[in-house]
Every structure is written in structure tokens, then in C-alpha cells.
Amino acid sequence: MMSPYLWSTGCGAKPLVEMGITHQGRSVAVERALSDFGIEESFGQAAKRFKEHYGYEIDPSTIRRVTHEKARQAQSFVEEKLRDAGDHYGDVHYAAPAEQVLVELDGCEIRTAQLQPIEGCTETTAVRGNPKKEKLIEWREVRIGLARPMDSVSKLYVGQMEKYPVVVEDLFCASVLQGMTPTSRVVAVADGGNGLREELESQFHNLQFILDKTHLKDHLYETAEELGISREQRPNWVIPKLEAISDGKAAEIKAELEEQFRICPNDRLRRLIGYIARFIDALNYGDFKAKGYPIGSGEVESAHKSIPQKRLKIPGASWHSDSVNPLVAMRVLRANNWWENFWERGTNDQLAA
Q1: What distance separates the 2 farthest-apart alpha carbons in the chain?
Q2: How confident is the model over 231-269, as pLDDT tens digits?
Q3: Are strands 207-211 and 133-149 parallel, antiparallel or unpaired?
């Protein structure tokens, strides 16, 4: 419309203002379309797609601003939904009670960038005269978790660039939404990250931790390399040990490695022995498979590609650390099929205002 005002003799109206659309404002439908494109691909490409579908040119910076604003709201929506479930654990059933619940947790690196003052530099910018800054590039870990009933393929995801206690708490709440009760058996599959198993066991009751088999295999191969075993001979050293451990003979393999260490001390071998000792009750892969438990965290590793990496790890992208969690939350909305609920609530809140 050329003007937000309508006028007839003796009577004027501002229909767009009455609908909540003001100068440089956008309807919920437009904001939804902009953030929908903006959360899937680069803001420049999102602008092209918006013009292709709707015929209007919008600057990529506008799409960026709208997407970040909606992402912050999405983060609040996800946090509220998870906290509500956690607060009612054992009192409210959000799904059919699950006898067994599977949880997985894994991390991936996202490139972040932040401007900081240049130490010892007295130069200023030409236009505003502000102190010059340099871009600090860091790779930060975004942790993604999933929860689902063991006998179901329906799953919920959580994700944050946060420490284990925060992410595991989110994972606990997602498990409640998936039917976890105080009597549910919880099976957790993850790697051997420092403190991860301990945090899972502190927040989940009745938990069986399973060390991702691929990570154990990697540790064995890395140790073989450090011991000077040739590439061709490494499988002959690794595979029998891995098979024996899988058959419930982790204690025997640990004793064998301890004897080897006694004869020829090696720091990497010492660390492998400690690794096996730490997870000795989480390595009986044959028994776990017989019970129907997964022995690898492949489900959540695949989720990295579709949730954070698909948008946050496009070529050349780097993010301010403050924007990572909101954008991940918006991707989680999509993965959990909460997208429609989020926009419905936004529309209702606007109508109520």
C-alpha cells in the first residue's frame, strides 16, 4: 500500500497500525517468512529467496536482524518448555510412560568471532575515532543431545554452547517430555568426555552408561600408533582386543595392557589403561546389543549435520558467541516439530497485546 492512511470525508482510518504494522514494521507472516529463510541459509541467499517467492526486495541485514530477534524468542520458548517439564517430573505425564529411555549427547565445533581491543595499539577508526579492534576467532563446542523411548523412533533434541551440567539438565527435561518417569531405565550413549558420564549419572537415576564403541576403537588405534606399531600391523593389535572387550573381557585386556606397560612403560598406554578402568562397566557391547541397546552415538552425531552445522557451519561463516545459542534453539524448534506452536504463541501474544 502506498500509504498507511485511509481517508473519506469526515472519517479517517489507519488499518495497518490497527493490525500492529508500523513504520518499518512487519506482520507476523512476513517475520515468519524472513526468519524461515534466514535460519536455513545465508542471509544474502535468504533475501534472494524471499524476492523469488514474494516479489519484494529486502536487505540481507533486515533478514539478519529479524532472524536474530526471533531466535532469541525461540530460545526463551524452548527454555520455558523444557523447564516446565522438569518442574513437573513425576507428577505430569507428557507422553505415554516409557519403560526404557535412550539419551545420547555429543559435541561439534562452531566457528565464533568477536572483536577485542588490540593490545598496545593507539590507532583509532577514521570515521568515529574509536580504538581499533581485531577479530578473535575461536572454535567453540556446541553440544547436541537427543532423548527418545527405546522402542520408538520419535525423538526430541536439545542443544547449547554450554557446559555439561546445563546441557544434561535440558536433556533430562526432554526425556520427561518423552515419557521418562522415576521408574524408567535410562540408557546413555556418549563419548568419554571429561565429566560427561559423571554429570549424566548425577542427574539421571537408574542409568546405564555405554561408551561409544568408535571412541574406544580410536583410543586403541592411537595407542598402537604411539607404541610404534606399523600401520599394516595395527589392526592385528587392535581388533582382537576390541572383540575381547566387546565379549565382556575388559578386565582381562586391562590386565594384559598393564603387563605390557610394566615391561615397556609408555604414557599413551598408561592413559589407555586408565580409560578402560574408568569405563570398564560400560564396554560389554555384546551384552548391550543382546538387550537391544545401541552401542554407538550415531543418531546424535547425524543430528549435528541437520541442526547446528547445516546453518552455523556454512563456508566462511563465523558467529558472535551470544548469537549461537538462540540460533541453535531455532534449529531445535524445527527438529522437534515445535515450529508451529512457537509461531502460534507469538501471534496470540500479539493479538492479546
Answers
A1: 102
A2: 999 999 999 999 999 999 999 999 999 999 999 999 999
A3: unpaired
Asked if residue 58 lies in contact with residue 51, where contact means CB atoms within 8 angstroms, the answer is yes
| Dist. CA 204–CA 95, nearest whole Å | 18
Residues 18/9, Cβ–Cβ less than 8 Å = no
Q: How far apart are the C-alpha atoms of 307 and 30, rounded to whole Å? A: 23
Q: What CATH architecture applies to the domain 93-212? A: 2-Layer Sandwich (3.30)
CB 295 within 8 A of CB 287: no
Q: Which is nearest to 323 in space by CA: 133, 46, 70, 77? A: 70
DSSP 27-88: -HHHHHHHHHHHTTS-HHHHHHHHHHHHS----HHHHHHHHHHHHHHHHHHHHHHHHHHHHT
Under a CB-based contact definition with an 8 Å cutoff, are residues 184 and 94 in contact? no
- Return d(Cα 53, Cα 39) in angstroms, integer: 16
Domain boundaries, the chain: 6-78+325-352, 93-212, 213-295
The reported pTM is 0.88
